[in-house]
Amino acid sequence: MDNLELQKVANEVRKGIVASVHSAKAGHPGGSLSAADIFTYLYFEEMNIDPANPDMEERDRFVLSKGHTAPGLYAALAHKGFFPVEDLITLRKLGSYLQGHPCMQHTPGVDMSSGSLGQGVSAAVGMALAGKMDEKDFRVYTLLGDGEIQEGQVWEAAMFAGHKNLDNLVVIVDNNGLQIDGDIAEVCSPYPIDKKFEAFNFHVINIDGHDFDAMRAAFLEARQTKGMPTAIIAKTIKGKGVSFMENQASWHGVAPNDEQFAQAMSELEKAGEALCQK
Amino acid sequence: MSEVKKAATREGYGKALVELGAQYPNLVVLDADLAAATKTSMFQQAYPDRHIDCGIAESNMVGIAAGLATAGKIPFVSSFAMFAAGRAFEQVRNSVGYPRLNVKIGASHAGITVGEDGASHQCNEDIALMRAIPDMVVVCPSDALEAAEATKAAVAYDGPMYLRFGRSPVPIINDRPDYKFELGKGVVLKEGGDLTIVATGICVESALSAAEQLKADGINAKVINIHTIKPLDEDLIIAAAKETGRVVTVEEHSVIGGLGSAVCDVLSEKAPTRVLKIGINDVFGESGSAQILVEKYGLDGKGVYARIKEFLN
Fold first, then answer.
1. CA dihedral over B115, B103, B62, B30, signed as positive or negative
2. Residue B164 to residue A155: CA distance in whole angstroms
3. pLDDT tens for residues B113-163?
4. What ipTM is given for this predicted complex?
5. Which residue of B51, B64, B89, B96 to mutate against A (max A Cβ within 10 Å)?
6. Distances (CA, A) of B89 to A63, A119, A198, B258
7. Edge to edge, what strands does the sheet with B27-31 contain?
8. How far apart are the first and last CA of chain A?
9. Which residues are paired to A61 by β-bridges?
10. Is B39 left (phi over 0), alpha (psi -120 to 50) or beta?
11. Global pTM value
12. Is B3 tagged catalytic?
């Protein structure tokens, strides 16, 4: 898929995020939007997956360690064809298979339940280890928040992955710079993120997390890296694509009201139209 | 009197894993720098490629096991009960219990019989913690033979399971030809109509000893071994309570949330009965030999007998 096509899909994923969180009247738009381009690249370009056969043994795996951004994952899965796009607005509603945080038993395409920060990355490491033990070719991807890496378990997992030379594992950090209480650098700084992963024996690549060329190059470099896992530190904008949500920590975990929803959708519609005229 | 054969329940676990390793190529064992202590070092020697030492990082170890289980492995996670159920509680709940993954938690060094290491390592709360997780099976074997059988049953069962083992050698009480381990089924070891003693783990032997002493006083106690605390053999306990009218529970665990609480939960609703809960009375342990601690905290046959006599008066 070329960059323009990816941009179009990412815009649809953003619409899905805004619509589902608005419908649920709760959820996490900020970090879902910052990672929308990453979700899109993974599901539409990078990963070997089959929506018709979500449990395919040889598939690549994805673990959303920052599980609260489930709306982004669900929107990508729906647009990829794992389930109907119309179902996105059942997010967080009683009886929906789209739980507030990812639940592997309920949702096609979700490879691991997650949501309690720091835990998903360990499961991803376990999947990568299983692949190595069985000499399988599948790759494992996991997306972490930059606030999430304040959790100590992330570094237990990183130490193990580096130690075991898990070159089939890619850890992506969504570095949008904001957590619930504010700027990550002010709350409890995880910087320098790249040097930390380097110290844990990762191959580290810094990219702009909204640049598909940069993603293409980084994920290719990760595939070519042997003997060590790769960490991609993706600099992103929290709330990306909705003007009034961008770079606002306050949009971490609240839903837009009807008026805000209308404005957000109108911005995204316009962005989509502009892409179609390219 | 012939010498009583003794072995720690963790020994039964370690030996069974080696046997099972041959049968199940997808069985893997994880440790957090305690393979010698948890007795999984035997498996490590037999199947080095299927033994994963995660270093001193129990939370990550449980998460790795979850990931392995999603890819079809049958992981046994081994550590001390304090760390497996305590430190990694939330990982067990959210990464194993909630997605209902096929991970077995083999927790050794449970209870006060850890001995000299003292209260920091004596986990008397693990049954309460694990029992509270939906769908978690909780098993606490009474001797090394039962520990081995429970480990075999764990592999045959598809789903999360917590297995509780002890550090100190305890008498072998299940060495009989008709012995059979059935998950979720209590075992009546002695019939009696005056009261029922329900025990788990190494306290089953104390219950048998107390029953012998009671017999000399003309009191006939029924003794039930509950190796599976969850799901609990409710029918057996209700029937015994109705038959004998009085119930005593004995466990090497806090009286809060363990076997005693599980039995009371059932009886208060379905067959109200007076229950005496014998266990660790909401206190931390301390350093000392396992033998001395068991006596001090009243979990040996003599201590259990004395408490029951008080209860009956």
1. positive
2. 29
3. 999 999 999 999 999 999 999 999 999 999 999 999 999 999 999 999 999
4. 0.96
5. B64
6. 21, 12, 30, 16
7. B51-53, B27-31, B74-80, B104-108, B161-164, B137-139, B228-230
8. 15
9. A140
10. left
11. 0.97
12. no
